[in-house]
Amino acid sequence: MRFLALDKLINIEDGYRKRFKIDSLELILAKEGDEFFAFGAVCPHQEQSLDEAMIENQTVICPRHNFGFSLQSGAHVEGFCSSLPVYTVHFEGNEVGIILAS
Ligand code: FES
């Protein structure tokens, strides 16, 4: 497990949304209210970008067909689509990032 720093906390306000591409990983770091989320940048249904996706009730809503994905598990809310990758947000010092398995 290793920490991958994405941004400094001082840069992040409520409503923050930023896409990162690191090797083959493409993800979005977001802050809504007091909560931070990190999730795959592309919808698993038909590869719609999630840069502008709405987040509510710990769910990200794809703007193309309005499928919702849990930001805790990545699961499609209605249960018939593949899951969205989600990542554990972690803080170290003044940085925020994700925990990677290796
Ligand atoms: S492309 Fe995202 S719900 Fe269809």
UniProtKB/TrEMBL annotation:
<dbReference type="Pfam" id="PF00355">
    <property type="entry name" value="Rieske"/>
</dbReference>
<keyword id="KW-0411">Iron-sulfur</keyword>
<protein>
    <submittedName>
        <fullName>Rieske (2Fe-2S) protein</fullName>
    </submittedName>
</protein>
<keyword id="KW-0408">Iron</keyword>
<feature type="domain" description="Rieske">
    <location>
        <begin position="4"/>
        <end position="98"/>
    </location>
</feature>
<dbReference type="InterPro" id="IPR036922">
    <property type="entry name" value="Rieske_2Fe-2S_sf"/>
</dbReference>
<dbReference type="InterPro" id="IPR017941">
    <property type="entry name" value="Rieske_2Fe-2S"/>
</dbReference>
<keyword id="KW-0001">2Fe-2S</keyword>
<keyword id="KW-0479">Metal-binding</keyword>
